[in-house]
């Protein structure tokens, strides 16, 4: 079955106009997308390649999904893996020390380029007694990334002050990515002070997200990444349907308009940035 027919059959958005220069989705969940929308990994990657997204970072959120990320990266040359306990999963875990040990072991696989997504999330974990558990997990992940010379991929939501404190307190690894950057220009500057890359999601295309466009404007172009966080955060004009890496061109073209630059030029820059952020080309 043709890609366009399969997307239509699943009720998914059509393929956008292909980019003239390939680029990379720096954060996606291929395995979750299968469950969420029925889009098989093979079709997902083929659709992405058809529009110029020829590489992706598959991200784990707990031990099982991290194992799956490693398996997908072993199977598909377009894919590298990131492994971690998501802060909300860390807060729920009854075996956190064992889980962190398992992540550490998975991080030794050559297909793993990053430890993440880890960090702090006080939006979904509202019980303040669990915020310390998230922080302990976050600090343990920072240590793994630093020791193994892997990229640290940070999730942050409604925990900005605590995140600032941990980042200021810790000896960070050489490469840090702020996943699904959701802050304003001031927070962007804070993250850039740690030499982080900022990864912008489809949210930047939303009418109520002008603050993200302002954050993008103050970010040096060599520190800009793009991501889907698929199957979530679908960009306009496909908002309301499941996300997938093949929809990156919508986000990237919007970002190019914000920056007043050519979309293909930005795609090439983001591609080089992503390889730099994740330790080299794959």
Helix content: 40-55%
Task: Tell me the radius of gyration.
Answer: 17 Å
In order across it, which strands form the biggest sheet? 1-2-3-4-5-6-7-8
Shape: globular
For the biggest sheet, the summary is:
8 strands, parallel
State the low-pLDDT regions, or none: none
Assembly type: single chain
Distance between the termini: 29 Å
Class of secondary structure makeup: alpha/beta
Output the helix-strand order: HEHHEHEHHEHEHEHEHEHH
DSSP strand tally: 8
Report the mean per-residue pLDDT as an integer.
97
Q: Please work out how many helical segments DSSP would assign.
A: 12
Indicate the proportion of strand residues: 15-25%
GO molecular function: hydrolase activity
Protein name: TatD family hydrolase
Pfam families: TatD_DNase (PF01026)
Organism: Luteococcus sanguinis
Give a brief rundown of this model.
This protein is an alpha/beta fold and 282 residues long.
Can you walk through the features of this model?
By secondary structure, the protein is α/β, with parallel strands linked by helices. Helices cover 45% and strands 16% of the residues. The protein is built from twelve helices and eight strands. An eight-stranded parallel beta sheet has the order 1-2-3-4-5-6-7-8, sandwiched between helices. The protein is globular, with a radius of gyration of 17 Å. The two termini are 29 Å apart. The model has no long low-confidence stretch (mean pLDDT 97). GO terms for molecular function: hydrolase activity. It is an enzyme of class 3 (hydrolase). It comes from Luteococcus sanguinis. This is TatD family hydrolase. It holds the Pfam family TatD_DNase.
């Amino acid at each position: 079955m043709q890609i366009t027919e399969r997307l239509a059959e699943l009720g998914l958005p059509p393929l956008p106009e292909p980019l003239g220069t390939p680029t990379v989705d720096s954060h996606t969940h291929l395995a979750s997308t299968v469950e969420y929308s029925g889009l098989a990994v093979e079709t997902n990657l083929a659709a992405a390649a058809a529009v110029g997204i020829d590489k992706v970072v598959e991200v784990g959120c707990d031990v099982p999904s991290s194992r799956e990320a490693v398996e997908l990266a072993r199977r598909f040359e377009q894919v590298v893996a990131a492994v971690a306990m998501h802060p909300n999963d860390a807060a729920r875990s009854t075996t956190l020390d064992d889980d962190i040990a398992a992540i550490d072991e998975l991080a030794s696989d050559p297909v793993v380029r990053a430890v993440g997504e880890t960090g702090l999330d006080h939006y979904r974990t509202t019980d303040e007694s669990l915020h310390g558990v998230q922080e302990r997990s976050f600090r343990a992940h920072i240590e793994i990334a630093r020791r193994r010379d892997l990229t640290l991929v940070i999730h942050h939501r409604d925990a900005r002050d605590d995140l600032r404190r941990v980042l200021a307190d810790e000896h960070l690894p050489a490469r840090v990515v702020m996943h699904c950057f959701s802050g304003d220009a001031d927070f962007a500057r804070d993250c850039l002070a740690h030499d982080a890359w900022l990864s912008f999601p489809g949210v930047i295309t939303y009418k109520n997200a002008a603050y993200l466009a302002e954050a993008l404007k103050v970010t040096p172009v060599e520190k800009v990444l793009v991501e889907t966080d698929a199957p979530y955060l679908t960009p306009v004009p496909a908002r309301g349907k499941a996300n997938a890496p093949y929809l990156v061109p919508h986000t990237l073209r919007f970002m190019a308009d914000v920056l007043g630059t050519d979309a293909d030029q930005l795609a090439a820059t983001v591609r080089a940035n992503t390889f730099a952020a994740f330790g080299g080309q794959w």
